[in-house]
Amino acid sequence: MKIVIPGGTGQVGAVLNRALSGAGHEVVVLTRRPSREGELHWDGEVLGPWAEAIDGSDIVINLAGRSVSCRYTAPNLRAMMDSRVHSTRVVGEAISCAARPPRVWLQMSTATVYAHRFDAPHDEATGVIGGGEPDVPDYWAYSVEIAKAWERAQEEADTPHTRKVALRSAMVMSPDRGGVFDVLLRLARLGLGGPVAGGRQYVSWIHDRDFVRAVEFLVDRPDLTGPVNIAAPEPLPHRAFMRALRSAWGVPVGLPATRWMAEIGAFALRSDTELLLKSRRVVPGRLLDEGFVFEYARWPEAAGDLVRRVRQGRLHGVRPGGAIASLSRSPRGGA
């Protein structure tokens, strides 16, 4: 199959590209800075020659959007909003104009759309959309507005022959350098992997192999549309999450950090504390209801596998890659 991945040069794009290319599919990545075979230039804002790649493709997986690993200043938040909404709209235009549109459009979204919550998990049916929580920073609500606008841009696209799914993804854990697991493991190895601000806040996550398998599952299910939570079924408090990561690497202790210490660390890393402090207790209701079985449902086992792959990569002088998935090679067709 031919698969087009706008914004596919980041960590999640690399995971998918390795898996899909390894399974024998033709993968085309749309990027602002093409540097290798299989990459095409686009600006994420207006139609251009890149749209020809979508015409006749089987699947589009849009991952485009400014990285959230930055300071949440007003200009950066606006850039997050614009990059997500504009790129989604122009992907929708390309699909709408295609003589042979793809049969499915998987659109990246985020579990951040749900409210900061400790008492109950969020699934797609009963989860509470965030934005009105008391006692949280005002700008957290803007992150929710970004997620809502992102999904709305896909919903409003006029693509009657293309099935649309919004991937409300938790953090994708892979051993790639620069990814979220790499950052967390580095903190743990330095002895800094203790609980932050008490560690009650929930962490939602998904192992990279299960992320690829969930994409495969959604591609092969023509009856599934709309938002789908892409997260392991057992989110856990930050304290327990970091304890399991330390155990997987063999680090006995991790220094705890107060909220103000986290603020200082985030400033030094040019990131933001929302990524650490917001309680994301998200569960994959629709995937489980439809029979999807996770290979890594629990974090201790997932962390153990990721640590093994990191160590294996260092032993051989390479950084280990992601999963190899085999998407079904069913014929194209409108859905």
UniProtKB/TrEMBL annotation:
It holds the Pfam family DUF1731. It comes from the Bacteria. Residues 273-305 form the DUF1731 domain. Residues 3-230 form the NAD-dependent epimerase/dehydratase domain. Belongs to the NAD(P)-dependent epimerase/dehydratase family. SDR39U1 subfamily. This is TIGR01777 family oxidoreductase.
